[in-house]
Known about the structure:
Elements: H1 2-14, H2 17-44, H3 47-64, H4 74-87, H5 97-110, H6 150-155, H7 164-186, H8 191-202, H9 213-227, H10 231-244, H11 252-262, H12 278-286, H13 295-312, H14 316-329, H15 340-363, H16 369-382, H17 391-402, H18 407-426, H19 443-463
Helix pairs in contact: 1-2, 4-7, 4-8, 7-8, 7-9, 8-17, 9-10, 9-17, 10-13, 13-14, 15-16, 16-17, 16-19, 18-19
Amino acid sequence: MYPFExxxxxxxxxxxxxxxxxSQPIVLQGIRYRHKNMQAAQKAHPHEKTVETKKPLITLWxxxxxxxxxxxxxxxxxxxxxxxWGASWQFxxxxxxxxxxxxxxxxxxxxxxAVHYLPTVxxxxxxxxxxxxxxxxFHMLPLEYPPFTLVIFLLALLAPLAYYQIVFAVFMALAxxxxxxxxxxxxxxxxxxxxxxxxxxxAAATAEGRFDLVPVALTLLCLIAAERxxxxxxxxxxxxxxxxxxxxxxxxxxxxxxxxxxxxxxxNPQEPLTLKSLPGEIxxxxxxxxxxxxKNTLIFFGxxxxxxxxxxxxxxxxxxxxxxxxxxxxxxxxxxSALGGPVALVFELLFVLGYIYAIFLQWRGKLDIVxxxxxxxxxxxxxxxxxxxxxxxxxxPLLAYSGxxxxxxxxxxxxxxxxxxMIYPYFYTRxxxxxxxxxxxxxxxxxxxxxxxxxxxxxxYLFNWLYARRRKPLPxxxxx
Length: 480
């Protein structure tokens, strides 16, 4: 302000030369006085300038965490573009997951002869040449996926065959944006940003090349509906999630218990619960079976039976038997030793114990439905004989929805995600043969560190070490 005041005083004095020369010292004294005052104010409040500098950053941060507006969608836009770029190196490969999806879609829609529209090596895993007779349309179902996945696989056939994988990636990117929107609308503040960050560092090479984002979105919809007491919608979402990936079936008991507890038809054990009183409390709980709500459970299984039965009319083995076999065995690239059998048995036992313990915690009211979903998935992954990179995608939206993005989660889950990305695709692309990847320097060390962190994180969640299960508040919405 004072430069303008000096200019005004100077202009006035110019018109009266005599006064100007007489009053000039007074004017200069006023300038010095104001200058000294400003210096004193700056010394007294040095942080004010810093605060003014930080204001634009605070405004930007608040806009990123907002629930609406263009800036609020910048994280998922940036993450999607980077993930698209991260997966682009495999868009035209013939041995990717999306390339297999294309084989499944074509052979289902056109029959076994459709493999001739693609390079011979791409669909060689189908062994069409060994079939007793050519298969007509609608009879060849996926070998390792539920038949309902064909709904997703067929969508990308709208594009020319050469661009199938690119179009498929675009559809998966849209599924990621849908999850982000759900988290912005129904999750705690910052959930969308956490989802974009976790996906970027942990699933950059897998999210848009596989269809896991679709069943994950349905699982998230199940949780959102359940927490708002829309139980039928929750069961329907979980049923369609199961029709795409079998793992959501593990979550059904948790959903059922949450529904009964909400209707106050499920007995809550008395505290303190001891080994002596435990059998009686369990028996008391089971005695209320006549009063439990079963309608939505029947809807769940009804949807599954109708959809699976439709595909079984054409191929019962492909619609039912092959799916159960794949889920039980989960084939992958394995290195088997003499200890493989006993170790697998131990981990199966640990899975059963971990699963029962998570249900036990929910029964006692120690876990809500979101925490129970996360606990069961952590136990399922950590005790499995296979750790596939896309398993992280199953949990990331649930972690974001629960508010698992404080310092503890950012460090632990961030480290697990980075190590998983180092393992695949980095180490696996250092060699032309995937069987040789474990011999790449750093591979086994990264796998060991990642697995150890995952075990510790699972234990921390089950036993609530460092308040790992702590949730952030959800926005106030109408549950009716």
